[in-house]
Specification:
By secondary structure, this protein is α+β, with helices and mostly antiparallel strands. It is built from 24 helices and 23 strands. The strands form three sheets. Strands 1, 2, 3, 4, 5, 6, 7, 8, 9, 10, 11 and 12 form a twelve-stranded mixed β-sheet that branches. Strands 15, 16, 17, 18, 19, 20 and 21 form a seven-stranded mixed β-sheet that branches. Strands 14-22-13-23 form a four-stranded antiparallel β-sheet. It starts with a helix and ends with a helix.
Length: 785
């Protein structure tokens, strides 16, 4: 019987070749888009879940002095766990290093290592190719590398015991283990693990290490939090000697522990000093919606065209029922046809999805996912997904076609017009989604343009930062003077922190009237720092290298003045029993576009390890050539490493830019799928109305009149879609824009433009068929009447 069903399905495919191609192509595109975006969503939702017992692993961090939640914690924390927290099975510390050079035969390779303690691989399991987790990092100058790094360095995985020189001083390290490079996503991404170097600190108010704990199977997060509360009360609180009661001390924000499940670290909001920039849960949900919409649009095409052609198959149903075929058999037959179409679309869709990945990567310069088939489970999941889509897409047509009454069909009383309302509803749904995606895509683009030009409180344009100026050593000042000799350079400054830079400094500040200090973000630079970076002095004066007392002076932002309650006249105020406030600058954003400006203190230090240079406009290329030549003349070990501050802020927008490009890319696919369905329906409608068109032309109707008649119905459907999609898109974009401190106004012109674009695309899709039908000779149409 199944063989007979397949034969009938193939016969139907050949008989209605154009509709079958539209069905398969629409489903293929929908499945391909769903595979790509769905795989990315799966990847984002499964960060760090591949580690054994990941549900028992937590990161413990702290905050102190009202400074906000850090992702790190003190060194002492892990030392007391064995005696004080029996629920912890094992704990480990992690420290992220800056980009480090590895040297093999004087050839340099850049890598960003993690420094970890010897228990790291017992908490985070890895597959060892050589060496083992127990002894891998016991020696101080040992290291464990991934198979990828091993192959990059030596072209082989048989490297146990080999030496690698690390850093500027080329300290030799011995390879004590090689682990398999996993493709699974993790926030602990690295190819090199080195022994951590502890300081022996017993200070609770430090945030130097990422502390991870693995709980025993019988323990819960509530047990851990209960123990942490006891630690705070019994060990931390006495060290503050605040004179306050414990409850008052806690309420004042002096100290807190934070626990975060391993699987939540990537998508939860980032904490201060985090290991890496995390994901965005809102973006994940947006992409998930796009995946669902793409698939639904493709399925709607299948349902629409299947029900639209029901008149052609009505006699087949009537004859088969009259011959005794049960409705159950007919349903199974039509589901078989649907599944065959879906599986064909699945095979084609897999190929298209690989093309999508290549196109998307060239379109966005982003690798969306590691690969569609990096795991055999994915292939099985895709097959099951395609099978499920085929069944779901075929359910309604199967039940609808099998419901025809043979008496009505054989007496020619059957009419297909009753279901046109449902088909129209599906077309409206398709175009509502497509138009909403167009509006969302344009709004994201508008927001990105707004961020590029928005005022962040300082002049971020034309500031080049040399990040490895510490290599200059005693030649720093002479090199700075060399840079100032170039006519493109306005000012130059040595400093330790820049907006949107990798470094974070935070000091505690207090006045004599305050019972406790407040942690404030701190920027450090010389007397040219303010002018070079572009901070705006609104009150007081800048630092001066001729005033000795400026070595302890402080310049505050306006919000820092309010935070420290210095009143309307902050100049001259004393902080930390000796530091004097000499100036106030306007608030500025330094972390990105999602958060409002935080209070900032700027302190004086002429011995910075970064050299920031403000350039005249349109002379960057000449200066960079000059910079490279002067750097090379010093014969330093490493090439100059530089970046522009505005480029750093551009990098902070990468997630939003990727979101915008992804929505635009898959919006175009959604529109194409919708137009495929519209084309198929238009072809069917035109075919059904051929005789009507012939009669109208005989009676004198012009080609234009007939085209307008045929397009009128589809125009109404698209117009309804525009009306429905506008409030939906406005709500979604308004929700998304709430993530930004600096946000654009939603422009009504975007809605108008999207509506006209959708109308134009719909007309373009159906007009070819309408014009062909209207231009046909009525004699050919009516000769059989």
């Amino acid at each position: 019987m199944l063989r007979n069903f397949i034969t009938i399905a193939l016969r139907q495919f050949r008989r209605n070749l154009s509709y079958s191609i539209i069905n398969i192509l629409g489903l293929s595109l929908g499945l391909a888009g769903s595979f790509v975006i769905g795989s990315w969503v799966w990847q984002e939702l499964n960060f760090d879940r591949h580690y054994q017992d990941s549900d028992r692993i937590y990161r413990v961090s702290v905050s102190f002095y009202n400074s906000g939640a850090f992702a790190r914690g003190p060194e002492i924390f892990n030392n007391i766990l064995e005696d004080r927290v029996p629920e912890v099975e094992i704990a480990t510390r992690v420290q992220k290093e800056r980009t480090t050079n590895l040297y093999i035969n004087d050839q340099a390779f850049e890598v960003v290592p993690l420094k970890v303690d010897s228990s790291y691989f017992k908490v985070f399991n890895h597959q060892f190719v050589s060496g083992n987790a127990d002894h891998g990092l016991l020696e101080p100058n040992s290291m464990i590398i991934s198979t990828k790094l091993s192959f990059d360095l030596f072209g082989s995985h048989d490297v146990l015991g080999k030496l690698i020189e690390v850093g500027e001083d080329k300290t030799p390290y011995k390879i004590s283990g090689v682990v398999h490079k996993s493709e699974n996503p993790t926030h602990l991404e690295t190819d090199l693990w080195m022994p951590i170097q502890l300081k022996g600190s017993e200070n609770w108010t430090s945030a130097s290490y990422f502390n991870y704990v693995k709980l025993i199977p019988s323990a819960s997060i509530n047990d851990l939090q209960f123990r942490l509360e006891n630690l705070r009360k019994e060990l931390v609180y006495p060290t503050f000697e605040s004179g306050m009661s414990y409850d008052s001390w806690v309420d004042s924000g002096n100290y807190a522990f934070y626990t975060k499940a391993l699987s939540d670290i990537h998508l939860d909001p980032s904490m201060k000093f985090d290991l890496q920039a995390g994901g965005n849960r809102a973006n994940v949900y947006v992409f998930l919606m796009v995946t669902i919409f793409l698939l639904v649009i493709a399925v709607i095409n299948f349902v629409n065209l299947s029900t639209a052609q029901s008149a052609k198959r009505a006699k087949e149903v009537g004859v088969r029922k009259a011959m005794g075929t049960s409705r159950k058999i007919l349903i199974f037959q039509y589901l078989t046809e649907s599944v065959l179409v879906s599986l064909t679309a699945l095979i084609i869709g897999i190929g298209i999805s690989e093309i999508f990945l290549i196109l998307f990567q060239s379109f966005t310069n982003e690798q969306l996912i590691n690969g569609l088939f990096s795991n055999w489970h994915y292939g099985l999941a895709y097959f099951g997904f395609g099978l499920l889509v085929g069944i779901l897409a075929g359910v309604y047509p199967a039940f609808y076609l099998s419901s025809f009454k043979p008496v009505d069909i054989l007496k020619s009383k059957f009419s297909n017009s009753g279901k046109s309302g449902f088909r129209n509803f599906l077309v409206v749904f398709q175009f509502t989604v497509s138009i909403a995606l167009i509006i969302c895509s344009l709004t994201v683009y508008q927001q990105l343009e707004h961020l590029r030009v928005t005022d962040l409180g300082f002049d971020r344009e034309n500031v080049l930062v040399i990040n490895n100026a510490d290599l200059l050593d005693g030649k720093k000042e002479a090199f700075k003077q060399k840079m100032l000799q170039h006519n493109a350079v306005r000012t130059a400054s040595f400093n330790k922190r820049i907006p949107a830079g990798p470094s974070i400094w935070m000091y505690t500040f207090f006045t004599e009237e305050m019972e406790q200090g407040i942690g404030i973000q701190t920027f450090i630079g010389d007397d040219q720092y303010l002018e070079t970076i572009g901070f705006r002095l609104v009150e007081g004066r800048n630092f001066s290298n001729e005033i000795a007392s400026d070595s302890t002076a402080v310049i505050l932002t306006e919000s820092a003045v309010k935070e420290l309650m210095l009143g309307p006249n902050p100049i001259g105020a004393k902080l930390n029993r000796g530091s004097e406030v000499i100036g106030v600058v306007s608030d500025f954003s330094f972390k990105g576009f999602n958060d409002k400006p935080e209070p900032v203190a700027i302190i004086y230090d002429p011995d910075g390890y970064r050299l920031s240079i403000r350039l005249q406009g349109n002379q960057e290329a000449d200066f960079i050539e000059y910079l490279n030549s002067e750097w090379q003349a010093l014969s330093l070990k490493d090439p100059v490493s530089y970046a522009f501050i505005d480029d750093n802020f551009e990098q902070l927008m990468e997630k939003e830019k990727t979101l915008g490009k992804t929505i635009a890319f898959f919006t175009s696919i959604a529109i194409f799928i919708s137009c495929l369905g519209l084309f198929g329906l238009a072809a069917f409608t035109t075919e059904q109305r051929q005789k009507e068109i012939g009669i109208r032309k005989v009676l004198g109707a012009s080609v234009g009149t007939v085209v307008l008649l045929l397009n009128k119905g589809f125009t109404k459907l698209v117009a309804i879609s525009v009306i429905i999609s506008a409030p939906l898109a406005w709500y979604l974009m308004n929700l998304w824009l709430q993530n930004f401190q600096y946000k654009t106004d939603i422009n009504i012109l975007i809605f108008i433009l999207s509506g006209f674009a959708a109308m134009f695309i719909a007309w373009l899709t159906v007009s070819y068929l309408s014009i062909a039908a209207a231009a046909a000779n009525p004699v050919d149409t009516l000769r059989n009447e």
